[in-house]
Design a protein that fits this description.
The chain has a 5-stranded mixed sheet with strand order 6-5-7-11-10, with helices on both faces. It has a two-stranded antiparallel ribbon with strand order 1-2. It has a two-stranded antiparallel ribbon with strand order 3-4. 66% of the residues lie in helices and 5% in strands. It is mostly helical. Pathway: Protein modification; protein glycosylation. It is a multi-pass membrane protein. Its EC number is 2.4.99.18. The chain crosses the membrane at residues 21-42, 92-112, 124-143, 149-167, 179-204, 210-234, 246-271, 277-295, 307-331, 372-392, 399-416, 422-441, 513-537.
Length: 784
């Protein structure tokens, strides 16, 4: 019989263990709440230092669409034809926009106002990104917890809450698609790993719904629908197929593709474009493998060989037929079924060769090495350690994380914009590395401290006694398994299918081998804490100084340390709004189309959607042409005002003169008479006295440098650091109507055509009279 002490001590130990687990859960929950608060608050520097304003260019279009949605409702939003953009073509907004961000912010605004909290649409848009950054941190915790436990999950969540690469796209006011897309990306990956670990159809359905939200939010959803098939194929090739893998993948492809096709901007592209073909091919492969495993369970070994031969042959025939159909469909497309941005990711030189409009975007350029240290900082050094930790031991979930980091590193090296995709992977692996390192170091300190050594030895003895009993348990389970094999039952088969692989726990000897010297362990812990402090300082600096300034309001430090504000953009848009007619058309380079439409409420020719390359090339050709030809182009498009951005006076480098060669290249791609060498002197782009006559006489040069010599008497350009070549000239077909305080935005009006036509008629009449007089003089009198 059991002693009363054992009956008393047994429940006490169980209660203490459950109490410890409950206390740990409460602590983890509190830490997660604090991480969410940190992720939200670190992104408020832009509001604290400046004001609550929308940033950059694309967010202004999203803000305008959200305003329309909140005012007119969802049905008018889907059917909205916007006649203020891409004049005279217009744009169907409901069928050409990813609606996830707009619907999310609109729903938040409606819920908040239904609770009698009076928030404007602009306020909701400004704070949407910080809110979802907290959600993304929690999703990173859930994903990393499925891979390596809660300790690594908390570390990864804290790292993602502060990583500068993510902050650059999620500060308050950065109302872009990535604000909610990164959360959707990480959460979709979490649900995939959760389904892979549990084999639950419930999580598989949630995974498809999360993928649908990702499709609604961002075009980067193609990364998910290619990465997951790659992982499934990797598991099949390495012999790690299981029913859980099938449940995690098959519903995602079927249900996810059907849901993706419901998004108007995607539509049938979900089954017709090359970006999705990999998922369908792996879908066929996994069904062939599943059929082979099913046949293996019901046939004898001899019959199985025959059946496998038949299944493999039929499967290969089906795969070959599908591949042939895909090749036929792809070959019929000029771009082989790939979009321009996808081809740029596969071939980094593709955009510069064939699609200059994509190559002209600064965020589509490859990053430099310092940008990695700026955006992910010390995580770049911790990622390799996290990869090594994922191999000890290697599981399905850890192999997915390794594949995620490898692909994201490659894509981030092609486009600096995709550093945003790298950030969650780097945080997850760095969290795993730090968690494993702290586990080893703290265990080493615990084993060697004199006060805790006794408890640790007792714990090791208890673990050793339990390990002595374990072999008998193992033998019993082996016998029961043999009996189950002899008499198979449906319940046992179901249990085998639902069986989840358990992580092997290191033995006592392995733990002894991981013990490091006490001094080295203490020093290593201090160094890791110092490394974390350095990371926190860098992230706070990046959030406060590097990524908080809105591009529409610029600042600079004066010589006396004061802050000088350049608010020229809003000054120009305000002038357009108050001094022009509602139906006036404004021409500018496509970078400023969204802001002009949203802030000035005026019709533009092109904007940041860049869906019509010919229309953009027409504007580029006008800017590259002489004044008379440019006037004719703009007049044919009913343009009344031309807006140019000029930074030569204050040293603003992102002006139209620095972008001008891209206008020439894009215009020359559609209109061959525009040739880039005509604007270069010996292969160099110059605006000084050595510039070519074509450059000095083009419209962009004249509109940027008109009256510029009056500012300092020399015409010194502070961006190009040289004096301009053509200083004194007059405009014949355009007139200056407004220039902002710092000359950053200049607006010109097209002169009416009647003055030019009258001159032509007078000239033609005089020429006719002169020619008639010459004819009269030339005639001989027949009477003489």
């Amino acid at each position: 019989m059991a002693s009363p002490e054992s009956t008393i001590n047994g429940p006490t130990k169980a209660d203490s263990k459950s109490l410890r687990n409950a206390f740990g859960g409460v602590i983890a929950f509190i830490i997660l709440v604090l991480i969410g608060v940190l992720a939200f608050s670190i992104r408020l520097f832009s509001v604290i230092k400046y004001e609550s304003v929308i940033h950059e260019f694309d967010p202004y279009f999203n803000y305008r669409v959200t305003q329309f949605l909140s005012k007119n409702g969802i049905y008018d939003f889907w059917n909205w034809f916007d006649d203020r953009t891409w004049y005279p073509l217009g744009r169907v907004i409901g069928g050409t926009v990813y609606p996830g961000l707009t619907l999310t912010a609109g729903t938040i605004w409606k819920v908040v106002n239904s609770l009698n909290i009076p928030l404007s649409v602009e306020t909701v848009c400004v704070f949407t990104a910080p809110i979802f950054s907290a959600f993304a941190s929690w999703a990173a915790y859930l994903l990393t917890k499925e891979v390596k436990g809660p300790g690594a999950g908390l570390t990864a969540a804290a790292l993602l809450a502060m990583v500068p690469s993510y902050i650059s796209r999620s500060v308050a006011g950065s109302y872009d698609n990535e604000a909610v897309a990164i959360f959707a990306l990480v959460f979709t990956f979490y649900l995939y790993i959760k389904t892979l670990n549990t084999g639950s159809l419930f999580y598989a359905t949630l995974n498809a719904l999360a993928y649908f939200y990702m499709v609604c939010s961002w075009g980067g959803y193609t990364f998910i629908i290619n990465l997951i098939p790659m992982h499934v194929l990797l598991c099949i090739v390495t012999g790690r197929y299981s029913s859980r893998l099938y449940i995690a993948y098959a519903p995602l492809v079927v249900l996810g593709t059907l849901l993706a096709a419901l998004v108007p901007v995607v539509g049938f592209n979900a089954v017709l474009t090359s970006e999705h073909f990999a998922s369908f091919l792996v879908f066929i492969i996994i069904h062939v493998v599943a059929l082979a495993y099913y046949i293996k369970g019901i046939l004898s070994p001899k019959m199985f060989k025959v059946a496998v031969t038949l299944v493999v042959s039929v499967g290969l025939a089906v795969c070959c037929a599908v591949i042939a159909i895909l090749i036929a469909v792809v070959a019929s497309s000029p771009t082989k079924g790939w979009s321009g941005r996808s081809l740029t990711l596969l071939d980094p030189t593709y955009a510069s060769k064939y699609i200059p409009i994509i190559a002209s975007v600064s965020e589509h350029q490859p990053p430099t090495w310092p940008s990695y240290f700026m955006d992910i900082n010390v995580l770049a050094f911790l990622v390799p350690a996290g990869i090594i930790a994922c191999f000890m031991p290697l599981s399905d979930s850890s192999s997915f994380v390794i594949l995620y980091i490898v692909t994201s590193v490659y894509f981030s090296g092609v486009m600096v914009r995709l550093m945003l995709v790298l950030a969650p992977a780097a945080c997850i692996l760095s969290g795993i590395a730090l968690s494993e390192a702290f586990n080893v170091l703290t265990r080493s300190i615990k084993f060697q401290l004199p006060g805790i050594a006794g408890n640790s030895t007792v714990a090791s003895e208890e673990s050793g006694s339990s390990s002595v009993v374990a072999p008998s348990d193992v033998s019993k389970t082996e016998k029961t398994e043999e009996v189950a094999k002899e008499k198979p039952v449906k319940k046992n088969r179901k249990k085998e299918k639902e069986n989840v692989e358990k992580k092997p726990t290191p033995s006592k000897t392995e733990r002894r081998l991981l013990v490091l010297p006490l001094e080295a362990s203490v020093i290593a812990v201090l160094l890791l804490v110092l490394l974390g402090a350095f990371y926190v300082v860098h992230c706070v600096w990046a959030a406060a100084e590097a990524y908080s300034a809105p591009s529409i309001v610029l600042t600079s430090q004066s010589n006396d340390g004061g802050l000088h504000v350049f608010d020229d953009f809003r000054e120009a848009y305000s002038w357009l709004s108050h001094n022009t007619d509602v139906d006036d058309k404004v021409a500018s380079w496509w970078d400023y189309g969204y802001q002009t439409t949203a802030m000035a409420n005026r019709t533009v020719l092109v904007d940041n959607n860049t869906w019509n390359n010919t229309h953009i090339a027409t504007v580029g050709t006008a800017m590259s042409s002489p004044e008379k030809q440019a006037w004719e182009i703009f007049h044919s498009l009913d343009v009344k005002y031309v807006l140019v951005v000029f930074g030569g006076l204050v040293g603003y480098p992102s002006d139209d003169i620095n972008k001008f060669l891209w206008m020439v290249r894009i215009g020359g791609g559609e209109f061959p008479h525009i040739k880039e060498p005509d604007y270069l002197r010996d292969g160099q782009y110059r605006i000084d006295a050595q510039a070519t006559p074509t450059m000095l006489n083009c419209l962009m040069y004249k509109l940027s440098y008109f009256r510029f010599v009056e500012t300092d008497g020399k015409g010194f350009d502070r961006v190009r650091r040289t004096e301009i070549g053509k200083k004194h000239f007059k405009l014949t077909h355009f007139e200056e109507v407004f220039t902002t305080h710092h000359w950053m935005v200049r607006i010109y009006k097209l002169k009416p055509p009647r003055n030019r036509i009258r001159g032509k008629t007078k000239k033609s009449k005089s020429s006719r009279s002169v020619s008639s007089k010459r004819d009269v003089k030339g005639k001989r009198n027949p009477w003489h």
